[in-house]
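Input record (one chain):
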Amino acid sequence: MPSFFIKTYGCQMNERDSEQVARDLIARGYEMASHEKEADVILLNTCSVREMAENKAIGKMGFLRKLRRNKPQLVLGLLGCMAQRLGETLTKKTPYVDLIVGTQKFHRVADYVEEALQRRKQEEEEYDEFHQLTASFHAPIVDVGAEEDSQNTIREHLTTPQQATAFISIMQGCNMHCTFCIVPTTRGPERGRPIQDIVQEARALVAQGIKEVTLLGQIVNLYGRHEIPRRDAKSPFVQLLEALHEVEGLERIRFTSPHPMGFRRDLIDCIGRLPKVMEHIHLPLQSGSDRILRQMHRPYTTAAYRKLVAELRGARPGIAITTDIIVGFPGETEEDYLASRTLAQELEFDGAFIFRYSQRGDTPAATMEGQLPEEIKEFRNKDLLEVVNASASQKLNACVGTLQEVLCEGPSRHDASQLAGRTRTNKIVIFEGGSRFHREIFHLRITRASSSTLYGTPALIEE
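The corresponding structure, as predicted from the sequence alone:
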């Protein structure tokens, strides 16, 4: 059978979608190639959040077409958010691709791959070598249409014997329409899966040895608000967390990414009382300026955000708070930027993704007045990153000498002779040990910290 290779750009949801495609292809007998040069099918699962991500994918595809010199039947495909956003127009930028499949059609990719392979086999001899190198033999397969219940199609997993963690996609789409964000265009409207289906998926993962799941959604804590009624004053998301908490053998629950507006009292209380919910919340701020937040259509103030952080820290002492902040949004003044900087210093985040604002053509912010030059964005990005890195380093150094519960996720990516795991607060720990630690939860004594990583040794705990 043919072999395939998938390269994924972007977020964890894209990773999860790629996993589903791989699972579907393997179920049909395809083999996963370890390198793109070995594959008969190469798929790029793309991101549209920033222009750079799209340019990387298009540039990569341009490089990959050269592989047809030695493999004229090679199938090339673009999947995901960029495919959804650009659709048919991608056939002009990349006329050599065989399929362009959007975000609601991942479950159809295996069918389209087989169709594309068959087309290439049938038509290869009809064109000369020049065409083989520069173009598809046929019009590409393009499917970027909406599909009802597509949120329920990403449910199968491709796990390894050593794997300890897994993602579960609980919803698709977003209704918030932040002025900088392309997601409502690429992912469609907000829609959630039934609680019982998600719980069943978690049980199946536990049966495969998974100890920790991360729930994925564009705004994960608004899960189910259109499909599932509140019960006992609890939101659908809280009901889901409680149901997953009862799954025997599931030890850890994480979720990303939430929205500040989705944290009501029931969810804050839930985080405080369910021990399987880990002490880490990724809580996007986006800006420390109320004026810029209004321009972004972020329906909270910095005072409300500050209060929410205090409530989370009060409900779960020691909880780690990480965030997203955008610098250089249209019209952001020096005063606006300094407000973000000051708030980041005050709240002392455990970490943050700092993004330079990127114009996305299908968003309101792209045509706003006051677009800032790249050099200002770059300066603010570096400056704010220094502030966040300082607080993150303090949090890591505070762990030195403490005992931390860690789930071992297997060999370290940078040194296979060492193991890597994560604390309950989602900090990476590197330590020495053998395969007996794989998938196990145990305590480590933290011996030192680098700028981004903890190091430790397994500790004996007296009962």
